[in-house]
Amino acid sequence: MRGQEVKESSAPNLFCYPAQSNFSGRKYPLSYVKGIQSQQLYPACEHRGRWFVLLDAACFVSCSPLDLSQYPADFVPISFYKMFGFPTGLGALLVRNEAAEVLRKTYFGGGTAAAYLVAENYFVPKPNVVSRFEDGTISFLDIISLHHGFETLQKLTGSMLNIQLHTFGLARYTYIVLSCLRHSNGKPVAQIHCDNDFQNIAEQGAILNFNLLDCYGRTVGYSQVDKMASLFNIHIRTGCFCNTGACQHYLAISNQNVKSNLHAGHICGDNIDLIEGRPTGSIRVSFGYMSSFEDCQNFLRFVVNCFVDKPLILDQKRLTKLKSAEPMESAASYDLASTPNGQLGHQKGQTISPSPERIAPSEDTVSKEEKNNGSSHTLTNLFIYPVKSCASVEVTEWPLGPQGLLYDRLWMVVNENGVCLSQKREPKLCLIRPIICLASNTLQLQVSGMEPVTVPLETSLANSDLRTSQSKVCGDRVQTVDCGKEVSTWLSEFLGKPCRLIRQRPDFLRDMKFGREKAENFGPTALSLVNEAQFLLINRASMSFLQEHIANSENEGTWHDMEQLIQRFRANLVISGQEAFAEDDWSHLTVGDTQFQVIGRCGRCQMIGVDQKSAARTQEPLRSLSECRSGKVTFGVYLAHQSARNTTAVPVLSVGARVIPRISESSDKP
């Protein structure tokens, strides 16, 4: 019995906790370190043995000083990326010498062994703790740069204490103003996830976590906010931030909700931000030593311009209360009087005012019979995009292949690391005009000011000179073949960086994942290098509604050219119709004699802000699309081809063909 007691009294125990929550920015008392080690706090006070403390300081040390002589945690993981912004992927585990002796490894790797035998279970680790635990070659080039990081940080800021005061002041200012914003009906603009009012620098870090709400109190999806923020050059983080526990706590997501969300198709890191109106994650704004007061104002102005029902109201009572409460620690002071009622949304060229006379078409005022009037729909345009993210080829008649329209998105441009380039990062791609010549079996690429370059349409796998490779499209690994040095040189010269043209291997099959649960009664749906589905359809009636909304909002640019606006949405099928967004409720449709199933709605991103003629970026039409859809930023629907059984005929789509839709029995209203 006594031996058992001695064993229990010497058993090592580990207590882990974060110095600061990466979700809400809440700081936890550093006094816990000594309290646990001295076994004065729970659970150490109720369990025998030696207690060690792991203090996760990765988030904390980015903006706060940490004195390990005062708070002698045994293990302290930190992130240098969070401190400097460079280098990425480099951190450290600080280990107290007294604690190192209890660490054991169940395996060993290169550089960690003093001696070992191959034929016998014999291994002696190196005596130094660093040598024992750093397997393989460390990232020594990145480690060298750390010296410059610390040196630069010291020169720019003077001390971590200065950084803490500066960033807390910015976070407090932003919190106060954001929490006081109200829609025209007095409803709050944001639900902020925190445990305090940003009064105590010892309790709150420079992180603001929230969800935006519309004037009816409904949550605005974080994916929509993220897409809009990118138009204003504002970087935010969205989701659950790898902190499921905090996400469940602040958003009131039960365990059953998590399981139900997975069943509904939501996984960590995707863009499914709302399920049955409930958020699956939130929005996080983090401040660093390079953040400025102007950044705060730009962010708040963005929220007001894009998500507040005008006229803006500031909750003066709350504002006065928060302004009068002095922080418990001295912090950088920012003038809250600089945000009078409505000023945030009144800068020239920045205001977005919903037009009261323009009301989105009511789903209840149009009967399903009227929407389903097949005679009102006609295929007006047909586009293929041979090279992903490059210009379209408009045709009047075109055959279908096994993966969609024949030769649609079979090629893509990649950088020297094999990563796909798109117009999000390389808008100049839209200036590359592909030309398909079936007679000569070639694909020609043209751009103004350069001689064209040609590659073959078909690739023979028997060619021994083929260079095969792997790339990724929307998380899917795809097998490709390289299209040669000549086109690589041509593309590299035009884009000003090393890149190559690759083609999907003819024998590689990529299965559609998007909307798979809807694709009933037919087998796997093969995809080319498209993002989600075989076809994308848009409705001219919907486009006309969006065009009018942009004009009424008096935003930048002229939007009288319907055809140029259509080009931005990069659809395969463009149809005429009578009712805007009627296509959202379709489950199936027939174009001529060819049958399709509607797989789902197309979520839009900042790529529709690229002018397809000039490659210039604009904030429209994404801003107005966000407004007129009153929620999800979707436009157009994805389709999958339903092949006719027992036939070898190749389907052909023709402009002018009649389009007959079928309404979904239970439509998911936007």
TrEMBL record:
The modification N6-(pyridoxal phosphate)lysine is found at residue 82. InterPro entries: Aminotrans_V_dom, MoCF_Sase_C, MoCo_sulfurase, MOCOS_middle, PyrdxlP-dep_Trfase, PyrdxlP-dep_Trfase_major, PyrdxlP-dep_Trfase_small, Pyrv_Knase-like_insert_dom_sf. Residues 337-375 are annotated as: Disordered. Pfam families: Aminotran_5 (PF00266), MOSC (PF03473), MOSC_N (PF03476). Its cofactor is pyridoxal 5'-phosphate. Its EC number is 2.8.1.9. PROSITE patterns: MOSC. Keywords: Molybdenum cofactor biosynthesis, Pyridoxal phosphate, Transferase. GO terms for molecular function: lyase activity; molybdenum cofactor sulfurtransferase activity; molybdenum ion binding; pyridoxal phosphate binding. The active site is at residue 242. Residues 503-662 form the MOSC domain. It catalyses: Mo-molybdopterin + L-cysteine + AH2 = thio-Mo-molybdopterin + L-alanine + A + H2O. GO terms for biological process: Mo-molybdopterin cofactor biosynthetic process. Belongs to the class-V pyridoxal-phosphate-dependent aminotransferase family. MOCOS subfamily. This is Molybdenum cofactor sulfurase. It comes from Sinocyclocheilus grahami (Dianchi golden-line fish).
